Amino acid sequence: MPFPPRDMVAALGIHMHFQTLEQTLRERHPELAERVRFHDLAGRPLLKILLSRTQSVGLAFVRMGHNIVWAVMDPVLNSEPSLWPLNTPNDVLVDALHAHASAHLTGEPVSSPWRWNESEPSETTELADLLDMRGVRVRRVVGGNGYVAYGPRHALKLGVFDAHEAAFLEAEFPEAFVRVSLKPRLG
Q1: Tell me, what's the pLDDT at 155?
Q2: DSSP label of 2
Q3: Which of 158, 164, 8 is nearest to 70 (CA)?
Q4: By the 8 A CB rule, do 96 and 72 touch?
């Protein structure tokens, strides 16, 4: 019997990775275990947490240009997905999915640092929290996770920033658009 073609082997590997993510999600967040669903329709795997009969928060592979990334997709139509590199640890992915689902289920905003698409608190996420508490619209935070979505919702593009070079946040004041950077070499 010949060995299966590489596309079949790749599809099986992706399917198994999603099954591992499903198991990790159920183990790390047992309070949501009955809401967790894994679907693999036509080679498009999706791990989701049901919010209601018609809405869910999902984790999927998404192609953005020439790149494939992890995306935590929110049911709110005008929200940008939370994007993560393919080498993101499973624990981070399931915790991001959990944070978004929990926010919807409790009616609270997504907790920091997850609301800024970051897995760990940092000086930039703390500054973003302080600005947000004062009513300033924080548009983007880049710290440890350098992957961000930009552009119109129907044609999102991937922005990749080297978080080791500089962490930054972008905020919108009534009179100005501000970018605050923290560069290791400059302070």
Answers
A1: 81
A2: P
A3: 158
A4: yes
What's the pTM? 0.88
Q: What is residue 111's DSSP assignment?
A: P
- Helix (H), strand (E) at residue 168: strand 167-172
For residue 41, list its beta bridge partners.
Answer: 44
Q: How many CA within 13 A on the CB side of residue 97? A: 33
Beta strands in 13-144, from DSSP E residues, in sequence order = 36-41, 44-50, 56-64, 67-73, 82-84, 137-142
Alpha-carbon distance of 163 to 144, in angstroms, equals 6
Residue type at 40 in one-letter notation:
D
What does the block give as tokens for 107? 């009616």
Please tell me the total number of residues recorded for the chain in this structure. 187
Query: Per-residue DSSP letters for 99-110?
Result: HHHHHHHHTSPP
Which residues are CB-contacts of 173 (< 8 A; sequence separation ≥ 6)? 136
Number of CB atoms found within 10 A of residue 22's CB: 19
Contact, 168 vs 146, CB < 8 A?
Answer: no
Q: For residue 127, what are its two tokens?
A: 């500054």
pLDDT digits (tens, 9 = 90+) for 69-124: 999 998 876 678 899 999 999 999 999 999 999 999 999 999 999 999 999 999 99
Q: Domain segments of the chain: what residues?
A: 1-108, 112-187
Tokens of 170: 């972008």
